[in-house]
Amino acid sequence: MTSTPGPVPTIDLALADRADSWAATADRIDGACRTGLFLLTGHQIPTEATQTVYRHTRALFEADPAVRRATSRSRSFLGYRGAPDAGSAADHKETFTIGRDPHPGETAGEFTPPNMWPPLPEFQQTLTAHYTRLQAVAIRVGDLLTKALELPPGFLTGRPERHISWLTAINYPTGAHETAAPRTRFGPHRDRGTIALVSATGPGLEVQADDGSWRPVPLTDGALVVIIGSMLAGWTGRRWTAPRHRVGPAAPSETSPRQSLVFFFNPDPATRLEPLPGPGRPHPPPPFGPALTVGDYLRTMIDGYRNPARP
Ligand SMILES: O=C(O)CCC(=O)C(=O)O
Ligand SMILES: [Fe+2]
């Protein structure tokens, strides 16, 4: 179930948890998640920290191809994936993805393959630090969403040390790949996971309204965009929505590449996607239910990255 989005709602994380205003906040969060996308302020990630990450990812995207090949994700879904050849109909973007390392005593599993780091100064420390910052924000958002659904603490987020999240840096090149006709930079899709936290260096992100039109998501200073994914939407019995979104064509005035950082947050793979407890809740459609785990879902997602088909 979707409803036509009005202006994109904003949730202030610094104020969200206040007991005196919680009832109103829970309603706002629920309303925002029903359309599936909101801006998050008050997350306390300094703008300079994010800018530093962009400087390092820019260095990777501009590095000698041999540097990028060293982290090519042909062996894994982590690392670098290049833009398609000019003329291809696929999205003209390149990506670099990291995940978390296995904890001491935890065997490196299918969801925690080794990260691949380019030989660039301070790249690994910078990206790892940002992963840690975004993870902390994602856990707080996950806790808020759990509370807004009146679920027991941890129901949606599970054991924090077992979360499986990925941080993807995206570069949307300009110039060489531009053809006469402006083209969508990232085609229409729904995110498949739980929630994504997005920041970007420039405009372009758009969300689809019920009438099929595309609405720009405002780039408000320092705000993160929170996008609900299909896993969470299905788990809530579609009370919440995974919105279709895309990155539209670059404006002629945009002469430098657009970069974004997307943190895909997912709970413990052992978590069962069972119906949410409580009276009067919409029942999740099949295949959700005790037989489906977050891990099963992530496996399908990873196959989808290897072999993309847009929902
Ligand atoms: O680059 C962006 O702003 C959005 C990226 C996105 O939607 C995604 O990675 O799923
Ligand atoms: Fe997306």
TrEMBL record:
InterPro entries: DIOX_N, IPNS-like_FE2OG_OXY, IPNS-like_sf, Iron_ascorbate_oxido_reductase, Oxoglu/Fe-dep_dioxygenase_dom. PANTHER family: 2-OXOGLUTARATE (2OG) AND FE(II)-DEPENDENT OXYGENASE SUPERFAMILY PROTEIN-RELATED (PTHR47990). Keywords: Antibiotic biosynthesis, Iron, Metal-binding, Oxidoreductase. The lineage of its organism: Bacteria, Bacillati, Actinomycetota, Actinomycetes, Streptosporangiales. It comes from Actinomadura fulvescens. Belongs to the iron/ascorbate-dependent oxidoreductase family. This is 2-oxoglutarate and iron-dependent oxygenase domain-containing protein. Residues 163-267 form the Fe2OG dioxygenase domain. Residues 90-104 have a biased composition (Basic and acidic residues). Pathway: Antibiotic biosynthesis. Residues 78-111 are annotated as: Disordered. It holds the Pfam family 2OG-FeII_Oxy.
